[in-house]
Amino acid sequence: QGRILEKTGLCSQITFGRYVRQGRKLGLDPKLFIQDLQFNKVPVRVYQPKATSGGPKRGILFFHGGGWVFGSLDTYEKVCRYLSKESDSVVVSVQYRLAPEHKYPAAYEDCLSATQHFLQHLQHYAVDPARVTVCGDSAGGNLAAAVSQTLAGRSDLPRLRAQILIYPGLQALDFNLPSYQQNRGVPLLFRERAAFFALLYLNGDALHMQEVLEGSHIPPDMRLKYRKWVSPDNIPEEFKVRGVKPLGPTDFIAEVYETVKRFCEPTLCPLLAEDSVVHQLPESFILTCEYDVLRDDGLLYKKRLEDNGVPVTWYHLEDGFHGIISLYDYCGVSFPSGKRGLDSVVNFLKSL
């Protein structure tokens, strides 16, 4: 439908996609105090439980998913309300700038700026400075990982207690990992769309998408350098039983690399951060779904964190698909595995 509207000149696919994904306004919640504010000029929505628990609460910075292109405060309203009430936490949902209008690093900079502001004003929200977590799903998981890495070495702000990464996208070097091959046509995120969104975020357009999908955008020496972190060899064998086709090397195209070389920056692809950064990261929670092209990004990051001595809680939805958390109570419908995934996040938060 979006393509039809685009061809007729009525609106773009992205405009149409944003329209159909927009959440509807919810009424007041008797258990929460909700207000729309700005943190360093970044729009945020703050959810505060009304019930007093006798001390400072946990704080959660939530970065929504949507491929850096879609999503809003309203889209994730039900998810944020649920997290706040069930974990008795103050939740700050961040409305970062979206691509393609605002290219990388706009979304990352907004999330970092809002996080820094919150960490500097925790007392105002009665939040325990020792229990602040960054959390995000999909592209939001990417942003949470990037913000966590940036703040890991900072001594002028309270240290993050944890990072929660829900089926995060963490690299754009290899779109042929086992999970990309196995789930290339599985909703809600097709293999081609994953590359499309990454390119829109990086450059504001999807030029050279085919070359990126084939792997022609990374120089051989760089591919060799990152192979220790981005490789099917680091994926447990149990995740290859659904079939994996070995792929030969593709021809490197230098002009394509010139347009996408920032894919090698950890603030865009956190899986590529050096060990010296990764080992400083806080306790982590990673949720993956079996039927998701981004499954292996989560598995590879889990291994990197564990190899660097970072405690990791991993929750795998064997019957889950990409985006299932965002569909919690969507138009009155919920997927049982999505509810299990959301509750696993709540249980992790309660343990902090």
- The name of the CATH architecture is 3-Layer(aba) Sandwich
Q: Give the overall shape.
A: globular
Sheet with the most strands: spatial strand order = 1-2-4-3-5-6-7-8
What is the rounded distance between the termini? Answer: 45 Å
- How many discrete domains? 1
Structural class: alpha/beta
| Oligomeric state of the chains in view | single chain
Uncertain runs are: none
Order of helices and strands: HHEEEHEHEHEHHHHHHEHEH
The top-level CATH class is: Alpha Beta
Number of DSSP strand runs: 8
Amount of beta strand = 15-25%
Considering DSSP H and I runs of 4 or more, what fraction of the residues is helical? 25-40%
Going by CATH, what is the homologous superfamily? Alpha/Beta hydrolase fold, catalytic domain
The CATH topology: Rossmann fold
Q: Taking Cα atoms only, what radius of gyration do you get, to the nearest Å?
A: 19 Å
The residue-averaged pLDDT reads: 94
Helical segment tally? 13
Give the biggest sheet: 8 strands, mixed
Domain Alpha/beta hydrolase fold-3: 60-207, 253-325
Organism: Sylvia borin
Active site: 138, 292, 322
GO molecular function: carboxylic ester hydrolase activity
